[in-house]
Amino acid sequence: MALAPPEPARATGTVAATRVGAGTPPGHRATPRPGRTRPGRRRLLTRGSVPYLLIMPAVLGFAIFKAYPIAASFWISLTTGNGDARQFTGLANYRRLMDDPLFWTALRNTALILVVQVPLMLGLALLVALGLNSTKVWLRPLWRLGVFVPSLTGLVAAGVMFSVILNRDAGLLNWVLSFLGIDPVNWLGSPFWARVGVVLVITWHYTGYNAVMYLAGLQGIPKELYEAAMVDGAGPVRRFFSITLPQLRPILLLTVVLSTIGTLQLFDEPYVLTGGGPDNATLTVTMYLYNNGFKYFDFGYASALAYALALIVSVLGILQVRLMGERR
Amino acid sequence: MSHQLTRRQILHLATASAAGFGLAACGSGGSGGDAAGADGDSGKITVWSWTSAAEALRGVVPSFERENPDIKVEIQDVGEPAIWDKITVGLASGGKGLADVLHIGVDYLPGYLEKFPEGIADLSRLGADKHKDAFVEGLWPTVIGKDRAVHALPWEVNPLGLFYRHDFFEKADVDPATITSWDDLIAAGPKIRAATGAQLIGLDKPGTTQDMDFFQNLMQLQGAFYFDQEGKVTLASPAAVKALTIIKRLNDGGLLADTAGQGTWKRLVSQGKLATAPEAAWAVGYMAEKFPAQSGKWRVMQPPAAVPGGGRSVIVNSTYLAVSAAGKRRKAAWRFIEHALTKPAEINRMYSSGSVFPALKAAYADPMFDAPHPFYGGQRVLKSLVESLSSGSEATNFTSDYSRALKLASDAQSQVLLKGADPAGALKAAAAQLAQQTGRQQAA
Fold first, then answer.
1. What pLDDT does A83 receive?
2. How many CB atoms lie under 10 A from the CB of residue B215?
3. Chain B neighbours among A 82-141 (CB < 8 Å)?
4. Contacts of A43 in chain B (CB under 8 A)
5. In this complex, do A189 and B407 lie within 8 Å of one another by their Cβ atoms?
6. pLDDT digits over B29-78, tens only?
7. A297 at the B interface (CB within 8 A)?
8. Could you tell me which of A289, A96, A263, A305 has the C-alpha nearest to residue B438?
9. What pTM, to 2 d.p., does this model score?
10. pLDDT at B301 over 80
11. CA neighbor of A163 nearest in space, from A120, A110, A116, A200
């Protein structure tokens, strides 16, 4: 409240009048020194306080739009009820989670995508980055653009596009496969192929993004290291494993952690592509969370799911940093 | 020293104002919708609906504004399914940002009434009860909340019809009059397929859209649903098993086409690959508009019974107009709903422009419901659908847990169609899970 600007019209008149009257010797009326007329401001605006004032908007934004919802969600996860009438039920929602086969199905699906898709995508991204980094590639900027463009596509748009491409009867992919003499694949109708479809979309969407990060990393590796290795007689494979990979370590860690978090929060693509089906083969934890909140109006349970997911994400993140991080 | 003190003060200030905002947010969320709303009867009201229904409602506005010069109406086409998320979020935040009038489907209304008891305005207070007998039987229980008050008026009702390719039946030498149960139709299916190459019906086998209307209708034909009238779970009842078994027989006999994927059903129909379509009344206009090349080839009959000799009329679904309790002009909103939904002339104007089949009984007196339809070879299609409504079907208890039931039923159907699961076993597991997740009891 103290930071609110004074009301312009009244403030100048009345405040100035009282201040002038408060012990100011006659003759000093005409040009009061700025510092003196605003004693409150003077104490706030010091060299030490300015940084705090500068970060205040961000802190306020965080408090209102992040911290409060996070805390409120935790409270809701401990309650059950309709609308505003919520009863405290302790850990009941968390206990219910343990017995819910759909939660475990969703978690298994998410883990499966994580284990299969993330290494596949990051390996591919590394290959792409190595290719893009090579001076032998003709029209390099064009290739770089082409690789990065998919990650600019909206998530929902990507899902819609692939649902057309993967359509069994009229889809582009089956049409192409038919030229190779391969029978049409029921991409979205069979549990196995639906998972493959989802992996395909995510890989298409994020490989370029990771490749660009690797490319940046590759270009930061000092050329002298390679020159020295070559002088010592190291071949390209040896140079890759002894110089490139170790030098890329921090970026690899970053992409692994970011991809893990992203995959655990996977929602849009399977939501648009398969709706979680068939028979929950592509149901993810966030999709199940969304269903509970916005379709079943079970906000307590949805919040418990959110906290369970947050816990899993943090544990995995910490583990990855511990395992892959710089050894001291 | 003075620096330290100031910093601390600033931090305190930051925390205090953040907490203040937080509490303010709490407070506004915590207040009941009724407290925030008001019974204003003039000014501008907004209405949320979707696609052709929104267009139809726009047609009512001029006459309403003429009769109520103090009220201006703005119809917004929010889109479907986006409208459900918008309404849910609005209700969850104490009515913030909601339109005055909300178009709500039968699949959402009971959930909203139970989960947000303060969110939808009590219309009994404004005189809605007097319209109780004006609408098709079976719809009124849906508009009643736990407080026994009326919270919406029925707009659209969709009786089920079996649309069929008359030319295909003739070619296969199948007399439609002999088809009275699904047993009959399944028996005729191979003949139709042999003569025309068409399968009987299309179904989204993997259940990506969770369109379970066909399964539900087969249950409703037996007077059953996911829940009984007391709200107990009946998803594993003999009627449900019978319904899923019919679907399995269709599939095993090669009579069920997979319509998963956008536009697949439309493509199959236009290519003449489907001989029948169990569809709701809204499809009368839709089919004629989408497949003009097939004019004269389609007819509509009463849906076959699920069990020989059983019931042959079903209400597939229905939609309603309700008033947000947080609205500032609840009386004006109610007046608009009453004008749009209880006057035959208005409701029929909306039917003509938007294919929204009216739930108001008085609307059926209009000659348009008795007129021959050229797309259906001059058949009086609407008349037969209206007649099926008057045979009186029992109210379907959707309950507040319909969405969860729908999801589990859809999973069970996919398991049967994609993995060859046994209908009884799949439904038993689904019913158990539904009971576990909702805390409802299973019916004996």
1. 66
2. 21
3. 82-85, 96, 99-102
4. 2, 6
5. no
6. 333 334 468 888 889 999 999 988 999 999 999 999 999 999 999 999 99
7. yes
8. A96
9. 0.80
10. yes
11. A200
